[in-house]
Design brief:
The complex is a heterodimer. By secondary structure, chain A is an all-beta fold. Chain A has a single domain, classed as Sandwich (Immunoglobulin-like). Chain A contains no helices and 11 strands. In chain A, the strands form 2 sheets. In chain A, strands 2, 4, 5, 9, 10 and 11 form a 6-stranded mixed β-sheet that branches. In chain A, strands 1-3-8-7-6 form a 5-stranded antiparallel β-sheet, with no helix packed on it. In chain A, 38% of the residues are buried. By secondary structure, chain B is mainly beta. Helices cover 0% and strands 52% of the residues of chain B. In chain B, strands 2, 4, 5, 6, 9, 12 and 13 form a 7-stranded mixed β-sheet that branches. In chain B, strands 1-3-8-7 form a 4-stranded antiparallel β-sheet, with no helix packed on it. In chain B, strands 10-11 form a two-stranded antiparallel ribbon. Classes of the chains: A mainly beta, B mainly beta. At the A-B interface, strand 4, strand 5, strand 9 and strand 10 of A face strand 4, strand 5, strand 9, strand 11 and strand 12 of B.
Amino acid sequence: SQQGEEDPQALSIQEGENATMNCSYKTSINNLQWYRQNSGRGLVHLILIRSNEREKHSGRLRVTLDTSKKSSSLLITASRAADTASYFCATEHNTDKLIFGTGTRLQVFP
Amino acid sequence: DTGVSQNPRHKITKRGQNVTFRCDPISEHNRLYWYRQTLGQGPEFLTYFQNEAQLEKSRLLSDRFSAERPKGSFSTLEIQRTEQGDSAMYLCASSYPNDRVYEQYFGPGTRLTVT
Protein backbone atom coordinates (compact mmCIF):
# COMPACT_ATOMS: atom_id res chain seq x y z
CA SER A 1 0.00 0.00 0.00
CA GLN A 2 1.12 3.55 -0.55
CA GLN A 3 1.89 5.87 2.31
CA GLY A 4 1.52 9.24 0.78
CA GLU A 5 -1.27 11.19 -0.72
CA GLU A 6 -0.43 13.95 -3.13
CA ASP A 7 -2.48 16.95 -3.92
CA PRO A 8 -3.47 17.95 -6.50
CA GLN A 9 -3.58 14.80 -8.63
CA ALA A 10 -3.14 16.96 -11.72
CA LEU A 11 -2.02 20.54 -12.28
CA SER A 12 -1.94 22.63 -15.46
CA ILE A 13 -0.15 25.97 -15.61
CA GLN A 14 1.45 28.38 -18.07
CA GLU A 15 5.19 28.72 -18.48
CA GLY A 16 6.59 31.20 -16.01
CA GLU A 17 4.03 30.46 -13.32
CA ASN A 18 4.87 28.72 -10.07
CA ALA A 19 3.68 25.17 -9.34
CA THR A 20 3.00 23.89 -5.84
CA MET A 21 2.43 20.25 -4.98
CA ASN A 22 1.61 18.86 -1.57
CA CYS A 23 2.28 15.50 0.02
CA SER A 24 0.86 14.05 3.22
CA TYR A 25 2.00 10.90 4.96
CA LYS A 26 0.85 8.77 7.85
CA THR A 27 3.70 7.69 10.10
CA SER A 28 6.95 9.25 11.33
CA ILE A 29 9.81 9.43 8.86
CA ASN A 30 13.60 9.65 8.67
CA ASN A 31 13.48 11.73 5.51
CA LEU A 32 11.26 12.66 2.60
CA GLN A 33 12.36 12.73 -1.02
CA TRP A 34 10.85 14.18 -4.18
CA TYR A 35 11.22 12.52 -7.58
CA ARG A 36 10.25 13.47 -11.13
CA GLN A 37 9.15 10.95 -13.75
CA ASN A 38 8.73 11.75 -17.40
CA SER A 39 6.10 9.74 -19.21
CA GLY A 40 6.90 6.03 -19.10
CA ARG A 41 10.45 6.50 -17.90
CA GLY A 42 12.54 6.10 -14.75
CA LEU A 43 12.51 8.38 -11.74
CA VAL A 44 14.91 11.26 -11.30
CA HIS A 45 15.84 12.27 -7.75
CA LEU A 46 15.15 15.95 -7.13
CA ILE A 47 15.69 16.73 -3.48
CA LEU A 48 15.87 15.10 -0.05
CA ILE A 49 14.81 16.72 3.20
CA ARG A 50 15.57 15.15 6.56
CA SER A 51 13.04 14.96 9.37
CA ASN A 52 14.93 17.61 11.38
CA GLU A 53 14.92 20.09 8.48
CA ARG A 54 12.10 22.47 7.67
CA GLU A 55 13.04 23.89 4.29
CA LYS A 56 15.46 23.13 1.51
CA HIS A 57 16.28 24.77 -1.83
CA SER A 58 17.80 23.45 -5.03
CA GLY A 59 17.79 25.76 -8.04
CA ARG A 60 14.15 26.53 -8.85
CA LEU A 61 12.92 23.96 -6.33
CA ARG A 62 11.87 24.69 -2.78
CA VAL A 63 10.74 21.95 -0.42
CA THR A 64 9.18 22.41 3.00
CA LEU A 65 8.51 19.79 5.63
CA ASP A 66 6.09 20.05 8.55
CA THR A 67 6.47 16.93 10.68
CA SER A 68 3.73 18.03 13.09
CA LYS A 69 1.24 17.97 10.21
CA LYS A 70 2.97 15.08 8.44
CA SER A 71 3.10 17.04 5.22
CA SER A 72 5.53 18.42 2.68
CA SER A 73 5.28 20.75 -0.28
CA LEU A 74 7.30 21.12 -3.46
CA LEU A 75 7.39 24.52 -5.15
CA ILE A 76 8.74 24.88 -8.66
CA THR A 77 9.29 28.54 -9.51
CA ALA A 78 9.24 30.07 -12.99
CA SER A 79 8.08 26.79 -14.54
CA ARG A 80 9.15 25.68 -18.02
CA ALA A 81 7.55 23.36 -20.55
CA ALA A 82 10.36 20.89 -19.76
CA ASP A 83 9.05 20.62 -16.18
CA THR A 84 6.04 18.70 -17.54
CA ALA A 85 6.18 15.35 -15.73
CA SER A 86 4.75 13.41 -12.80
CA TYR A 87 6.13 14.32 -9.40
CA PHE A 88 6.23 11.87 -6.50
CA CYS A 89 7.04 12.26 -2.86
CA ALA A 90 8.60 9.27 -1.13
CA THR A 91 9.10 8.74 2.57
CA GLU A 92 11.84 6.75 4.21
CA HIS A 93 11.31 5.10 7.54
CA ASN A 94 13.53 2.93 9.68
CA THR A 95 13.53 0.18 7.08
CA ASP A 96 15.39 2.22 4.42
CA LYS A 97 12.87 1.40 1.70
CA LEU A 98 10.96 4.24 0.06
CA ILE A 99 7.19 4.46 0.21
CA PHE A 100 5.84 6.55 -2.62
CA GLY A 101 2.80 8.74 -2.90
CA THR A 102 0.31 8.61 -5.71
CA GLY A 103 1.91 11.46 -7.65
CA THR A 104 0.95 14.81 -9.16
CA ARG A 105 0.83 15.11 -12.94
CA LEU A 106 2.12 18.55 -13.91
CA GLN A 107 1.48 20.02 -17.36
CA VAL A 108 3.25 23.25 -18.24
CA PHE A 109 1.95 24.97 -21.37
CA PRO A 110 4.33 27.12 -23.42
CA ASP B 1 26.83 6.64 -18.69
CA THR B 2 27.49 5.28 -15.21
CA GLY B 3 23.88 5.28 -14.01
CA VAL B 4 21.69 2.31 -13.16
CA SER B 5 20.91 0.20 -16.21
CA GLN B 6 18.13 -2.31 -16.73
CA ASN B 7 17.57 -4.94 -19.41
CA PRO B 8 15.46 -5.51 -21.29
CA ARG B 9 13.62 -2.19 -21.52
CA HIS B 10 10.47 -3.88 -22.77
CA LYS B 11 9.24 -7.45 -22.51
CA ILE B 12 6.07 -8.92 -23.95
CA THR B 13 5.27 -12.44 -22.85
CA LYS B 14 2.37 -14.85 -22.85
CA ARG B 15 0.63 -15.79 -19.66
CA GLY B 16 2.29 -18.74 -18.00
CA GLN B 17 5.77 -18.02 -19.32
CA ASN B 18 8.77 -17.19 -17.12
CA VAL B 19 10.63 -13.90 -17.47
CA THR B 20 13.88 -12.58 -16.03
CA PHE B 21 15.01 -8.99 -15.74
CA ARG B 22 18.49 -7.71 -15.01
CA CYS B 23 19.65 -4.62 -13.14
CA ASP B 24 23.19 -3.25 -13.07
CA PRO B 25 23.60 -0.73 -10.27
CA ILE B 26 26.02 2.17 -10.01
CA SER B 27 29.32 0.42 -9.37
CA GLU B 28 30.16 1.64 -5.88
CA HIS B 29 26.60 1.30 -4.55
CA ASN B 30 26.13 -1.49 -2.02
CA ARG B 31 22.31 -1.41 -1.85
CA LEU B 32 19.98 -2.44 -4.65
CA TYR B 33 16.19 -2.15 -4.63
CA TRP B 34 13.35 -3.46 -6.82
CA TYR B 35 10.03 -1.63 -7.17
CA ARG B 36 6.95 -2.23 -9.28
CA GLN B 37 4.84 0.55 -10.78
CA THR B 38 1.44 0.19 -12.37
CA LEU B 39 -0.18 2.79 -14.56
CA GLY B 40 -1.16 5.95 -12.71
CA GLN B 41 0.37 4.84 -9.43
CA GLY B 42 3.60 5.48 -7.58
CA PRO B 43 6.24 2.75 -7.36
CA GLU B 44 5.73 0.03 -4.74
CA PHE B 45 8.62 -1.59 -2.93
CA LEU B 46 9.31 -5.25 -3.70
CA THR B 47 12.67 -6.14 -2.17
CA TYR B 48 16.18 -4.90 -1.48
CA PHE B 49 19.73 -6.19 -1.07
CA GLN B 50 22.72 -5.00 0.83
CA ASN B 51 25.65 -6.47 -1.05
CA GLU B 52 24.50 -10.05 -1.77
CA ALA B 53 22.15 -10.34 1.22
CA GLN B 54 18.42 -9.93 0.60
CA LEU B 55 17.32 -7.92 3.63
CA GLU B 56 13.62 -7.38 3.09
CA LYS B 57 10.83 -8.70 0.89
CA SER B 58 7.42 -7.14 0.47
CA ARG B 59 4.25 -9.17 0.78
CA LEU B 60 3.70 -8.14 -2.86
CA LEU B 61 6.48 -10.56 -3.75
CA SER B 62 4.56 -13.79 -4.16
CA ASP B 63 6.18 -17.22 -4.41
CA ARG B 64 6.33 -16.76 -8.17
CA PHE B 65 8.83 -13.93 -7.76
CA SER B 66 12.47 -14.41 -6.89
CA ALA B 67 15.34 -11.96 -6.82
CA GLU B 68 19.04 -12.59 -6.56
CA ARG B 69 22.22 -10.59 -6.31
CA PRO B 70 24.81 -13.38 -6.39
CA LYS B 71 28.04 -11.42 -6.18
CA GLY B 72 26.77 -8.20 -4.71
CA SER B 73 26.87 -6.47 -8.08
CA PHE B 74 24.09 -6.96 -10.66
CA SER B 75 20.70 -8.37 -9.69
CA THR B 76 18.05 -10.44 -11.44
CA LEU B 77 14.31 -10.53 -10.84
CA GLU B 78 12.51 -13.62 -12.13
CA ILE B 79 8.77 -14.04 -12.42
CA GLN B 80 7.55 -17.59 -12.95
CA ARG B 81 4.21 -18.51 -14.53
CA THR B 82 3.40 -14.91 -15.37
CA GLU B 83 -0.14 -13.62 -14.95
CA GLN B 84 -1.81 -10.63 -16.58
CA GLY B 85 -1.72 -8.84 -13.24
CA ASP B 86 2.07 -8.89 -13.40
CA SER B 87 1.98 -6.35 -16.23
CA ALA B 88 3.78 -3.29 -14.87
CA MET B 89 6.99 -1.29 -14.97
CA TYR B 90 9.71 -2.93 -12.88
CA LEU B 91 12.16 -0.38 -11.53
CA CYS B 92 15.56 -0.95 -10.02
CA ALA B 93 17.42 1.52 -7.84
CA SER B 94 20.78 1.56 -6.11
CA SER B 95 22.22 3.57 -3.25
CA TYR B 96 25.21 4.16 -0.99
CA PRO B 97 25.12 5.78 2.44
CA ASN B 98 25.77 9.49 2.50
CA ASP B 99 25.90 10.63 6.11
CA ARG B 100 23.64 7.69 7.06
CA VAL B 101 21.09 8.54 4.37
CA TYR B 102 20.57 6.25 1.39
CA GLU B 103 19.67 8.39 -1.62
CA GLN B 104 18.27 6.06 -4.28
CA TYR B 105 19.09 6.37 -7.98
CA PHE B 106 16.66 4.70 -10.35
CA GLY B 107 17.16 2.94 -13.64
CA PRO B 108 14.90 3.43 -16.70
CA GLY B 109 12.76 0.41 -15.83
CA THR B 110 11.63 -2.73 -17.62
CA ARG B 111 8.07 -2.58 -18.91
CA LEU B 112 6.42 -6.01 -18.79
CA THR B 113 3.28 -6.79 -20.76
CA VAL B 114 1.65 -10.17 -20.16
CA THR B 115 -0.83 -11.14 -22.87
